[in-house]
Amino acid sequence: MDKRFWVCGLVMSVAALLLGFVIHGLLLAPDYAALGPMFRSDDDGRHYAHWMVLAHVLIGFAMTWIYAQGFSEGRASLLQGLRFGVAMALFSTIPGYLIYYAVQPLPGGLVARQLVLGTIATVLLGLLVAWLQPRRKVLRELP
After folding, report:
1. N or C terminus of the chain: which is more exposed, having fewer CB within 10 Å?
2. In angstroms, rounded to a whole number, what is the distance separating the alpha carbons of residues 13 and 56?
3. Angle formed by the axes of helices 3-20 and 49-70, to 10°?
């Protein structure tokens, strides 16, 4: 793992954290607030923020590492990223929300929005890691 891997992993971690904030902290926040004590309050949640950061760091570096293992030279980055993002959504995002729905009394409409927004975010992360290409060699040699 070279310097490029670590930079890509960091960029992916920050992007995952930002997408998670936009989706859950802004777009779905009213839905979560309506559920009352099923979720932590904002004040209580602040005590667990480090776990949220750790989770997104794991997402960023894991996606970078997995993508780097299957990167194909000569294939279009956009298509590889799209394929990778969809695969990650099918592997983790969609099953995760379906499992939560099976074990928690969440409204179906909320789960549908989580599925759609979570899948979009995961596909966007797939496109980002393909654009970053953690195994890409230097684009050109400097004279």
Report:
1. C
2. 5
3. 130
List, in order, residues 6 or more apart from 50 with CB less than 8 Å away: none
Q: Which amino acid is at 1?
A: M
* Alpha-carbon span 133 to 69, nearest angstrom: 11
41: left (phi over 0), alpha (psi -120 to 50) or beta: beta
Do residues 118 and 89 make contact, with C-beta atoms less than 8 angstroms apart? Answer: yes
Global pTM exceeds 0.90 = no
Q: Which residue has the tokens 């890691």?
A: 129
- Geometric angle at alpha carbon 113, from 118 and 80, rounded to 5°: 30
- Tell me the residue length of the chain: 143
